[in-house]
Amino acid sequence: MPDTTLNEHVDALAADFDEMGEEEERPQTFAELGVPGPLVRVLAADDKKTAFPIQADTLPDSLAGRDILGRGRTGSGKTLAFSIPLVARLGEVDADDFENMSQFRHEVNRVKQEHAEERRSEDFVPHPRGLVLAPTRELANQINDVLMPLAQIYGINTTTVYGGVRYARQIRDLRAGADIVVACPGRLEDLIEQHALTLEKVEVAVIDEADEMADMGFLPPVKRLLGQVSFDAQIMLFSATLDHGVDEVVNTFLSDPKVHSVDTATAAVDQMTHHVFETTQGDRHALVRTLASGKGRRILFTRTKFQTQKLAKDLTKNGIPAAELHGNLSQNQRDRNLAAFESGDVNVMVATDVAARGIDVSGVELVVQVEPPEDPKSFLHRSGRTARAGHSGDVVTIVLPNQRRRTRRMLHEAGLKIKPIQVTPTSPEVLELVGEPAEPVYGWTLEQSQPAGNPRRRKHGKGDSGDEHEKHQHRSNGRNKDRGKDKGGKPFKSERNGHDERDRRAERGEDEQRFEPKKNRAERRAAKFQGRDNRELEAREQRWEHPEIQEEKRERHERKRNDKRREKYARLHEQQRDKAERSRESDKRSDKRGTDGKRGQSAGKSKQFSKRQGAPTKKQRKSEARAERRYEETRRGERHVEQRHERDYDRRNGQGGKRIHRKEIRVIRDERSEDAKRHDRRMEAKYGNRSADRKGHGERHDKHAGQPYRKHAKIRKAPFRMR
């Protein structure tokens, strides 16, 4: 009986442990991580109910307002990891204060209307409250696509800022209301210099792909932009590595950051299968066409823009429609090509490394690296276009015989051990990856699938078609055509009387309105606020009459920021002094140990001398002496050859090798500039060549008086000449 009880107890404990293990392995939902209810609804509608590891790791701290330093591989869900806290912290309406969603939406619309009234003021300067910095235009658009549905539920407006787009359009979007700006650093700095926006009220700032920004040389503008952000703003930085100055940004701008690293920079995705196909130069083009002929989506990476254009044209000519993506395309062309690839009009995208970061297209089955990349980081980012969000995918790297060694070294640095396979276009390994080939399509053009214009603006409802008003009118007439009518189809009596009265007023005042001068904006605003309290005007007048208040606020903010930075740098200097003091104490102890004998003393002195004075070693001294001897021998040989040539020349000219006396000719070369020479010519033409008799202009009182004007006269020996 006791044994039976003990066994039952052990079984119960084992079951508890199993349940705990299952609970730990079960992915957490967004609601369990503290995400607000409206955002949970939006994510669930997009079939996103559970969090990825990096999201589950960072969301509790980021929602609490802590600075975040996150590191994760590409395709791990970093964009959603910072988009959720960005929107949740900027949302001004708390969903927990309302009983249902209708009340929540009503309050959101009221707050949105207040912001619209604020933007109507004449001195309004756009001041976003959220900022996301991205290295490329494609990545900025991808981040905006993830942010937009989350921000709309809170009435938050988002916009993108990057190069390749007209300034006027972006300034118009900013003034229309931009609570969150997703920008590339270069164009954002240009708009700030034009006073199109200010970053003083940014509450949350995000730097995505910081290592890529460092590689592209964007870290200096990133530092300048972060210096304009409010001192108490939350900063989230995501990077694969902390090299090339990224650590300096972290130490300067992040305050006590929470570090989250779910994987290493070179970690491979479990669902990703790598293949290395070795082929010849003659079979490579046919092999690439075979790999691109499948039905699934695939991305082909090349090294240069010319290779991208040539390969896309060749595939399209052979019945495989392919879109291209590289740096020579305008933003409109990039968006059209990406839209064609995302919509499924084309299954093949040929791109350079500009697409290695920023393309987040689901269902990419195969990534083909036609040309191996230069470094392992680019290799991993290229490969990261497939096997995203838990899906599987294959990566093929095509290698020529002369690229075998370099590719092996790169794969080793990336942490991969893959054995190359020699293949042809008809090899079973190749045909297995291709699967069922697609039907060839000849004569395909981009205009057939994507009409001219900006597909992103059409996607987000920003199209500028001329019949937009007509569509809205038809839709309104169709839905509300029977509103205000009785069952017989006639308008109610009150409605009929109201319409008739309005028509009569319109007919009576038509001529008066026709000749009435139009009011400008200031007059319209004055008429609007007549008899009412204009808080905006009062606040503007207050700022105008008392500029010292704003100046005091600005000085207070700068003083606070400078004090904190001064304390930080003081701590750094103190650490450096402590380190130097410890090194000096260690040197003293070593010197004291070396004074036990003459040998030890001399050894200590020589070691100290070599460390502090940088004295060359014995090997270095021998090498320098050897180089000097070799130089002297070379010079002696050259002089010997010159003398022999001179004797031969004299012998050929009948001199019999006899040395004759030659007069040295000294030539004075004028080393002055052309302006100085021109000035001397003008003075000689005006006053003649009477340098000593000149008065006023250029009179010289030095030892060179009476000589031509010159700064420097370099004397050189002319070569020997025959008399």
Strand order of the largest sheet: 3-4-2-5-6-1-7
Please give the alpha-carbon distance between the first and last residues. Answer: 133 Å
Q: Work out the strand percent.
A: 5-15%
Largest β-sheet summary? 7 strands, parallel
Question: How many beta-strand elements?
Answer: 16
Percentage of helical residues? Answer: 40-55%
| Shape verdict | globular
Q: What is the CATH top level name of one domain?
A: Alpha Beta
Would you identify the regions where 5 or more consecutive residues have pLDDT less than 50? 1-7, 17-24, 265-269, 463-499, 510-515, 597-612, 694-701, 711-715
- CATH architecture group name of one domain: 3-Layer(aba) Sandwich
Gyration radius from CA atoms, angstroms: 39 Å
Per DSSP, the total helix count is 28
CATH topology of one domain: Rossmann fold
Helix-and-strand structural type: alpha/beta
Mean pLDDT: 75
Topology at a glance:
Blueprint: H1 2-25, H2 37-45, H3 53-63, E1 68-71, H4 78-90, H5 101-119, E2 130-133, H6 137-152, E3 158-161, H7 167-175, E4 180-183, H8 185-193, E5 204-207, H9 210-216, H10 219-228, E6 234-238, H11 246-253, E7 258-261, E8 272-278, H12 281-291, E9 297-301, H13 305-317, E10 322-325, H14 331-343, E11 348-351, E12 364-369, H15 376-383, E13 393-399, H16 404-413, E14 421-422, H17 428-434, H18 446-449, H19 455-459, H20 468-480, H21 493-508, H22 510-515, H23 521-528, H24 535-545, H25 547-594, H26 598-613, H27 618-652, E15 666-670, H28 674-687, E16 713-717
Parallel strand pairs: 1-6, 1-7, 2-4, 2-5, 3-4, 5-6, 8-13, 8-14, 9-11, 9-12, 10-11, 12-13
Antiparallel strand pairs: 15-16
Helix pairs in contact: 3-4, 4-6, 25-26
